[in-house]
Known about the structure:
Largest sheet: 7 strands, mixed
Number of helices: 11
CATH topology of the largest domain: Aspartate Aminotransferase, domain 2
Order of helices and strands: HHEHEHEEHEEEEEHEEHHEEHHEH
CATH architecture of the largest domain: 3-Layer(aba) Sandwich
Amino acid sequence: MKMVDLNGQYERLKAEIDEAVEKVMASGAYIKGAEVTEFQENLSRFLSIPHVIGCGSGTDALQIALMALGLQPGDEVITTPFTFIATAEVMALLRVKPVFVDVEENTFHIDVHQIEAAITPRTKAILPVHLYGQSANMAPLLQMAEKHGLYVVEDACQSIGAEYIFADGQRKMTGTMGTFGCTSFFPTKNLGCYGDGGAMFTHDAELAKEVACIANHGAEKKYHHERVGVNSRLDTLQAAILNVKLRHLGEFTQVRQAAADRYDALFAGCDWLTVPYRASYSTHVFHQYTVRLADGINRDLLQELLRADGVPTMVYYPVPLHLQPVFAELGYRRGDFPVAEHLADTVLSLPMHTELTEQEQEKVREVMGKIVEKCWK
C-alpha cells in the first residue's frame, strides 16, 4: 500500500502522457514551448479566471505574488501557523513579517473571527491557506480585507478544483477570489506534474503582467530588466504533462471524494478518531484525508504499528510555524495558538490517491481497529 500511488496513475495515463512528452522532445522547445501557453489557457478556462501565469513551484508562486504587491520590509501579512513552511517562508525572504492567527479545530483553517484583532497599521495582506483540499471561509475574510484595504493572497496549493459556495449560491474556485491565487503542481498534488511547477491566478491584467515580468528576471523584453526579478518558469515538459492531467482532474476529484466517503463510513462510530469535517460553504477535493486522533492516543506508536502492518501514514504538520526555530525571533510561545498546537499533536493523514482501492481502505480500518488499543497513553 502506498500513501500516494504516482506509478499507478502514470500507468493509467501512460499512452496520453508519453505522447505529450514525445511531442515536446521532438520539438526541442523545452522552455517556453507552446504547451506552456496552452496549459495556462486551459487552466484559465477551468478556473474561470482570465489570467494564469505558470512558474517554477508553489513556493515561487507565493513569493512572486507578494513581490508584485510591492510589500516593503516590516510590512505584515496575516496567515495561519498550521500550514507548510513555504506559506511564511516567502514572507521572511522578503523581510515581511508573518503575523499568525489561530485556526478552527474542525476545518483546520484560519479563524476569520480572530483576524481583525491582528490587524495593525503595518498590515498589508491576509494569506489564507485552503488546507487539505477544502476552502477557508472566504466571504467574511474578503469583507474584512475590503473594509481595511488589504490584499488577499490565497494559498491554494492543496485545493485545486475545490469550490467556495457563497450565501447567494454563487460558486468560485479556490484561488480565484482574492487579489492572487497561488498553486503548486508538485507530483503528489491533485493536479501534479513530474517535477516542480506552480502557477499564479488573478483577475487583474496589470498584476498578471507584473508577476510574469518578475518571474522572467524582471524583464518584459529580453535583456531589458525593469525591476529585480527571479528565474521561475513552468517548463514545457511539465506543462505538457499537466495538460493531460487537467483533462482528468474532474474524474480524479470524484475518485478522491468517493474514497473519502468510504473512509467516513468505515470509521463511523469510532470514538478514537474524528473524520474530516466538511464545511457547508465548500466542496472538498481531499488532497489529504486527515483525521484527528482522540486525546490520549500515542500517535508515534500508532504510526509505527501501522507501518509494520503495511499501512503508511503521514503527519501534516507536526510543528506549527510559530514554534519553528526559524521564526523564534517573532517572539511567539507555546500556548499562543492552542488550537493549532493541539491539531499538530493529533492529526494523522491516511492513504489518499486516485488509485486507492476499497480493499486497501478496508485494510486501513481493520489494522487501525486492531492495534489502537495498544496505543493509549
